[in-house]
Design brief:
With 418 residues, the chain is of the alpha/beta class. It contains 19 helices and 13 strands. It has helices spanning 5-8, 33-46, 58-64, 72-76, 94-106, 128-131, 140-148, 168-181, 200-211, 230-240, 255-262, 277-280, 290-300, 318-329, 351-358, 368-371, 377-392, 398-401, 405-414, and strands spanning 18-27, 67-68, 80-88, 116-125, 155-159, 185-187, 219-223, 245-249, 268-272, 286-288, 304-308, 339-342, 363-366. It has an 8-stranded parallel barrel, surrounded by 6 helices. A 5-stranded mixed beta sheet has the order 2-3-1-4-10. Helix 13 (290-300) runs parallel beside helix 14 (318-329). The longest helix has 16 residues, at 377-392. It is elongated, with a radius of gyration of 24 Å. The termini are far apart.
């Protein structure tokens, strides 16, 4: 039989021929990283981790096996740690296999191996040929800002509440209040989709007549959550009815965003993460790092993404959220920057601290703290607008806050961080 270690353990390789995946791995008590890394490399390319066959030739190992970028002796001395793997590009039909097959390779059958106690996908690096099959955002931050004519400050977004149960007439009433209150972006909640009381076919044209004739450009994200092919049909219909943005939840499937982007419609795409913790939660034994998902989302071509939140009922550590934002807006020669949406407990009292910590290239997306304002949704939107303007002008002080009635009421209700 072949000495397969010399084919799968490498130190030198051509980066343009491989997708490089970084994992945190931990073995069960009586095994080490060498043994489980080898099981992954074999199981995710050639075949059964434990059984060899006469069909496994040297040529096959050299061309198609996953490579382990590590010293086997070093791995034998450890039971846990980070390990880099090189997945051959030739094992994928990049354009058609896309994200679905990529993740089948990266987080597939090896998760069934009991010897692997933990497997966490921390990062991915792609060769140029792989990236060339993805479009990236159609608008991105630059295109969004140009469309709404908002520069040098965060974009102000709002989320429709109640989430569902409204008639189209009630929905329009809320939209008008938000527009009058000064928002730049309005998103239907992911619970909305296509209920009988307010079906997409009826509400989109009805709402967009108001949005498109309000005197300024506003993005309105229509929820199209559904199975394939319905989300594709709905995206086309939203555009035909005058819409400028669609909103899809992660449960439609990661590859759904690539499919929508490839329609190449002149509308924006919002990525909603609600539910992602099922597979991105760090405390789980098996997970995909959220920043990896964000990297994939940018490749696939979303324009906005619910990136996370600081200080709300959902809270990310400052370092972690800044890292996520850098994945979305950092320098990338291949793709435009994605606008990070910060939500899940956003309110006016957090605005100044968030801008200071995370910068201006974010969207402050607000639901409850707009609609729950003591004086109503219009006042809630104005309070957020006032907080943003004071913050970017460097005037976010208690004295200045209390000069604005709407902001004053919001601060009294939710408090503030200087």
């Amino acid at each position: 039989m072949l000495e397969i270690d010399k084919f799968i353990f490498v130190s030198a390789y051509n980066k343009e021929d491989y997708i490089i995946a970084t994992y945190y791995l931990e073995s069960i008590a009586n095994l080490n990283l060498y043994e489980i890394s080898k099981a992954i490399a074999l199981g995710q390319s050639i075949g059964n981790p434990e059984i060899r066959s006469v069909y496994e030739t040297q040529e096959l190992f050299e061309s198609a096996s996953v490579k382990i970028i590590a010293d086997p002796l070093e791995l034998k001395s450890k039971k846990k740690g980070n390990v880099n793997f090189a997945f051959p590009l030739r094992n994928l039909n990049i354009k058609e296999d896309g994200i679905s097959q990529l993740l089948c390779h990266l987080m597939g059958g090896h998760l069934d191996i009991d010897a692997i106690r933990q497997c966490k996908l921390l990062d991915i690096e792609f060769p140029r040929e792989f990236l060339a099959s993805f479009s990236g955002p159609k608008f991105g931050i630059e295109g969004i800002r140009k469309y709404i004519n908002v520069y040098n400050k965060p974009v102000l977004g709002s989320i429709i509440k109640p989430k569902v149960g409204l008639t189209k007439e009630q929905l329009l009433g809320i939209v008008k209040e938000l527009i009058d209150g000064g928002v730049d972006f309005i998103k239907e909640d992911e619970i909305m989709s296509n209920p009988a009381i307010c079906p997409l076919e009826e509400r989109v044209e009805y709402i967009m007549k108001c949005v498109n004739n309000c005197g300024r450009k506003i993005v309105y994200a229509v929820c199209i959550n559904s199975d394939y092919p319905y989300f594709m049909q709905r995206a086309k219909r939203v555009y035909e009815l005058g819409g400028n943005c669609v909103h899809l939840n992660i449960w439609a499937g990661l590859s759904a965003y690539k499919a929508l982007r490839e329609l190449d419609l002149p509308i924006m795409l919002f990525f909603q993460k609600s539910g992602d913790r099922i597979f991105t939660r760090e405390r789980h034994d098996f997970y995909i790092d959220w920043d990896v998902v964000c990297k994939l989302a940018r490749m696939m071509g979303v324009d906005f993404i619910q990136a996370g939140m600081w200080g709300g009922y959902s809270h990310s550590e400052e370092f972690a959220l800044n890292k996520t934002i850098s994945v979305l807006i950092g320098e990338n020669i291949h793709f435009l920057a994605v606008l990070p949406s910060l939500s899940c407990g956003m309110h006016p009292g957090l605005v100044n601290a968030i801008i200071n910590k995370f910068g201006k290239d974010v969207m402050l997306n607000v639901g409850g703290a707009i609609h729950g304002h003591p004086s109503g949704s219009k006042a809630g939107a104005r309070a957020m607008r006032q907080a943003i303007e004071l913050s970017v002008e460097g005037k976010f002080t208690k004295e200045n806050m209390f000069k604005h009635q709407e902001l004053k009421e919001a601060i009294k209700k939710w408090g503030y961080i200087e």
